Amino acid sequence: MSRPSIKEYEAVAPVAAADRNLGFGDLLATWVGANANNGTWYVGGVVAGAAFAGATMVTLVANPIAYVVMALIGFIGFKVGTSTMALTRPSLGIRGSYLPSILNTIQFLGWTAVNTFIAAISVGYILKDTLGWPALGDPGGNRSMLLGIGIMSILHLVSIALGHHSVKMIERVGVILVLILGLWETVVVLQHISLSQILTWRPPVDQTLPLGKAMDVMAAFSLGWVPAIAEFTRYTKNARSAVVAPMIGANLGLFWFAFVGIIGAIGAAISTGTYDPNNSDPSTIVSKLGLGVIALLVIIITSTTANAVNLMAAGISLTNITRRIKPIAALWVVTIVAAVLTCVPLVVGNFLDSFIVFLDYIGMVFGPLCAIVIVDYFFVRRGRYRAEAFTDLSGEYAYTGGVNWRTMAVWAIGVGFFLAVRNVDVLSNSIGATYPTMILTGILHYIQCRIKPDARIERGEHAA
After folding, report:
1. 203 by DSSP, 3-state: which?
2. Transmembrane ranges (predicted)?
3. Would residue 463 count as lying in a domain?
4. Residue 463 has what DSSP assignment?
5. What is 237-293 written as a DSSP string?
6. In the chain, what percentage of residues exceed pLDDT 70?
7. pLDDT bucket at 366, cuts 50 / 70 / 90
8. What is the pLDDT of residue 284?
9. Does residue 430 have a pLDDT over 50?
10. Is residue 255 part of a domain?
11. What is the pLDDT of residues 241-278, one digit of tens each?
12. Residue 436 CB contacts under 8 Å (≥ 6 apart), including other chains
């Protein structure tokens, strides 16, 4: 039997058939592990500000839509064989793809920092329970946080040491622990607080989250995973593994842990008499409900499974900007940078405000970009991308100096539209601004391609 390949491909290099070694189970475990984690729990606690019924509704509506978008781009990654950011080259241009790659690196570094910060809180509580060290919020608590960030960073380096191969291994083990934790903590939370109390609880008026705002938070949260999808589907053996497995895994992981986050935050609010979305992170909820050290340890593990995906996406995005840095080296670089970023909340103070701004940024930037990629591949070029032209600055994706300024303008219009309408009452109280922005951007991209189509597309130079 031949030895399995351990090659990690840079962003623009299409994965060879012999190196496509991720199966249905691998993708299923990866996306359960990516979504059944601290961040999902935390965002569930944030949208609990819409009360149980509102939070549950937006979870069941906003996220499946986002994962359909993810599945479509995952299919493109499977067909073309390159990373997600490389797939923006046909629409934005070779050099035009650098901007989303930079933003994508930043957003996944941010997600890594969010998950790491929450896991570091768990480390602090463990140190408090076992050694009497101060935890976050206690005088001197930053010492425990810094140690926790250091421990998590070491775990992250181990999880990405061999690229997608080590991610595959960590997800296979982690998903078992994730499912055990989710079941156990769901039962324990419901033992502490009756379901009837949870169903009838209402947040204070000044902390109520409008339904549309909750939709945007959830949509942005799930859309945040889309720019990571092709990093894995390009290694899959068939379209079913690339499309179906991530959708099932992502929805399963998110529904479960968002539900735990919602009832955990509401349960803590009922138990303490105070609803504070700043304390919706799982480490704080676990401590308040007395679930013990084991729950805190598994929170640390689930952070590792989620951040393995985050760091893969951030590192491979770097290789779409420059081919001078090799994929494994890029993964180590982003891991170290993420450790530094995780320390920022210790300085800026309010974690929730930073988190909400971060989610707004994701919806504002990547929602329109996803719409452009989907419309460009399926409707403008009708499934015909040539990966060999992704690096040719004299070829069909070169445009003007490597940038397709018309599509860049459409992207900018989408971002501007989101900023203009996100606080409009009719949207903030209903469907939110994220999905209307994506629909508008996709339509505009198709129209601008049809009104004045690129000559090379018309001549069919992109055809396989």
Report:
1. coil
2. 41-61, 67-87, 108-126, 146-163, 175-194, 214-232, 244-270, 290-316, 328-348, 354-380, 403-421, 427-447
3. no
4. -
5. SSHHHHHHHHHHHHHHHHHHHHHHHHHHHHHHHHHHS---GGG-SHHHHHHHHT--H
6. 84
7. very high
8. 64
9. yes
10. yes
11. 999 999 999 999 899 889 888 888 888 788 778 887 76
12. 421, 427
**Would 464 be classed as within a structural domain?**
no
Establish if 428 belongs to a structural domain. Answer: yes
Q: Does 227 have pLDDT greater than 90?
A: yes
CB 351 within 8 A of CB 117: yes
Checking if the pLDDT of 288 tops 80, the result is no
* Across 179-199, average pLDDT: 74
What is the spatial distance between Cα 31 and Cα 201, in angstroms, rounded to a whole number?
32
Q: Report d(CA 383, CA 170) in Å as an integer.
A: 33
CB 326 within 8 A of CB 128: no
Q: Tokens representing 294?
A: 């084991």
How many alpha carbons fall within 13 Å on the CB side of residue 436?
18
Residue 252 is part of which domain span? Answer: 19-458
CATH of the domain at 212: 1.10.4160.10
Mean pLDDT, all residues of the chain: 85
C-alpha distance from residue 375 to each of 96, 368, 450 (Å): 17, 11, 12
| 47 φ, ψ (degrees, to nearest 5) | -75, -5
Q: C-alpha distances in angstroms, 310 versus 88, 149, 272? A: 19, 16, 34
Neighbours of 424 (CB within 10 A): 12
Closest C-alpha among 185, 187, 199 to residue 287: 185
Count of structural domains, the chain: 1
**With b meaning 16 or more CB within 10 Å and e meaning fewer, what string describes 306-340?**
bbbbbbbbbbbbbbbbeeebebbebbbbbbebbbe
Q: For residue 170, what are the contacts with CB-CB under 8 A and spacing of at least 6?
A: 33, 158, 159, 304, 305, 308
Question: CA–CA separation, 147 vs 129, rounded Å?
Answer: 15
DSSP calls for 76-100:
HHHHH-S-TTGGGHHHH-TTTTHHH
Q: What is the DSSP letter of 35?
A: H
Q: How far apart are CA 450 and CA 464, in angstroms?
A: 21
Radius of gyration of the chain (CA): 22
User: Contact, 335 vs 153, CB < 8 A?
Assistant: yes
Long-range contacts of 246-249 (CB under 8 A, 24+ apart): 246/27, 246/28, 246/30, 246/31, 246/67, 246/70, 246/71, 246/74, 247/67, 247/68, 247/70, 247/71, 248/28, 248/31, 249/27, 249/28, 249/29, 249/30, 249/31, 249/32, 249/33, 249/34, 249/35
Which band of pLDDT confidence, cut at 50, 70 and 90, is reported for residue 451? confident
Q: How far apart are CA 269 and CA 148, in angstroms?
A: 27
Tens of pLDDT, residues 304-326: 778 888 898 999 999 999 888 88
Q: CB of 32 within 8 A of CB of 253?
A: yes
Task: Classify residue 276 as left (phi > 0), alpha (psi -120 to 50) or beta.
Answer: beta
